[in-house]
């Protein structure tokens, strides 16, 4: 039975960390092979689960040391039907993998959660196609497509679902409607290009407002991920009402564009201290940003730097 599904603690205030760039960490730092950038394949073996457990525990230790909450996102960004088919997973095997990811997080929560560090279990969803390209699905197709993964999470102990690296407003609407149909709290996280806009050219504000208008405000909150703060700072204007719907950031370590990152053969892990300062400035200007983690190129060092820079400020104003 889900512990927080109907009373998510991050909605009550306080600071919540999340992990960093799972796939880039496992590939470049751990030397693991993740076909099609899919980390959920590790759930199939004891060795793979041990790698994932060790990965999460580095971040949980940071949160526990500071007495802040944690959002445990599952290793399922690629665990939707099209990507799973490329990896030889049928419908049943895919459901098993998605639910196994939640079972792993449940075990971690049982070991790590404390009264000062609530741990929310979140089923992570990724785009059907390439997150760096605009999707081609309409709302109804996206709703039906992502219902496969969301229904698996709804039958598990997941407290919520969160869709990351979305460049398509239509896909975001479909995911929001699917989550609503399955009575699952949902977070939507968009990615932007270096000009602060979605790949479609829409502004971040337009994306949030369109999804809210089309779904009756179904998403619990919005986030930004897979872009460096220098890419999306320009899209934020203090005092605008829509920004109250943005509750989190999971930024890239690198200032490179998506196209440049796609072509890079080595990992650009940027400057963790500088990234922490940028998060601190974001939080100072936008107090609703309370869920803080990383994306491509980041690891536990970056999240620790973000925590060092932000938690004192956040703790005073949350």
Count of extended strands? 8
Strand content: 5-15%
Radius of gyration: 18 Å
Query: Low-confidence parts lasting 5 or more residues at pLDDT below 50?
Result: 313-318
Given helix and strand content, the structural type is alpha/beta
How are the strands of the biggest sheet laid out side by side?
Answer: 1-2-3-4-5-6-7-8
Shape: globular
Major sheet size, sense and barrel closure: 8 strands, parallel, barrel
Order of helices and strands: EHHEHHEHEHEHEHEHHEH
Number of H/I helices: 11
User: What's the mean pLDDT score?
Assistant: 95
Span from first to last CA? 29 Å
Helical content, roughly? 40-55%
Keywords:
318 residues, disordered C terminus, 11 helices, alpha/beta, 8 strands
Walkthrough of the structure:
An 8-stranded parallel beta barrel has the order 1-2-3-4-5-6-7-8, surrounded by 6 helices. With 318 residues, the protein is α/β, with parallel strands linked by helices. Helices cover 44% and strands 13% of the residues. It has helices at 22-29, 46-66, 81-86, 91-112, 139-154, 169-181, 204-215, 229-232, 258-263, 272-285, 300-317, and strands at residues 16-17, 69-73, 119-125, 160-166, 186-190, 221-225, 246-251, 291-294. Helix 2 runs parallel beside helix 11, helix 5 (139-154) packs across helix 6 and helix 10 runs parallel beside helix 11. Strand 3 (119-125), helix 5 and strand 4 (160-166) form a beta-alpha-beta unit.
């Amino acid at each position: 039975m889900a512990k927080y599904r109907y009373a998510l603690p991050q909605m009550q205030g306080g600071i919540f960390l999340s992990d960093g760039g799972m796939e880039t960490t496992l590939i470049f730092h751990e030397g693991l092979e993740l076909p099609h950038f899919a980390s959920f394949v590790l759930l199939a073996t004891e060795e793979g689960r041990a790698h994932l457990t060790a990965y999460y525990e580095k971040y949980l230790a940071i949160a526990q040391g500071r007495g802040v909450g944690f959002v445990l996102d599952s290793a399922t960004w690629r665990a939707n039907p099209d990507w799973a088919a490329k990896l030889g997973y049928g419908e049943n095997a895919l459901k098993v993998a998605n639910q196994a990811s939640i079972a792993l997080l449940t075990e971690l929560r049982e070991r790590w959660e404390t009264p000062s560090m609530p741990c929310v279990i979140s089923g992570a969803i990724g785009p059907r196609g390439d997150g760096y390209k605009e999707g081609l699905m309409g709302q109804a197709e996206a709703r039906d497509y992502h219902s496969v993964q969301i229904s698996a999470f709804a039958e598990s102990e997941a407290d919520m679902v969160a869709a990351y690296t979305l460049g398509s407003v239509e896909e975001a609407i479909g995911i929001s409607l699917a989550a609503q149909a399955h009575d699952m709290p949902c977070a939507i996280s968009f990615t932007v290009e270096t000009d602060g806009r979605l790949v479609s050219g829409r502004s971040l504000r337009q994306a949030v407002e369109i999804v809210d208008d089309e779904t009756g405000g179904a998403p619990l909150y919005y986030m930004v991920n897979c872009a460096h703060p220098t890419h999306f700072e320009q899209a934020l204007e203090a005092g605008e009402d829509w920004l109250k719907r943005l509750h989190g950031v999971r930024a890239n370590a690198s200032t490179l564009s998506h196209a440049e990152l796609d072509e890079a053969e080595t990992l650009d892990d940027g400057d963790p201290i500088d990234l922490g300062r940028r998060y601190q400035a974001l939080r100072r200007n936008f107090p609703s940003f309370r869920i803080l983690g990383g994306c491509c190129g980041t690891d536990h060092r970056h999240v620790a730097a973000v925590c060092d820079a932000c938690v004192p400020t956040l703790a005073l104003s949350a």
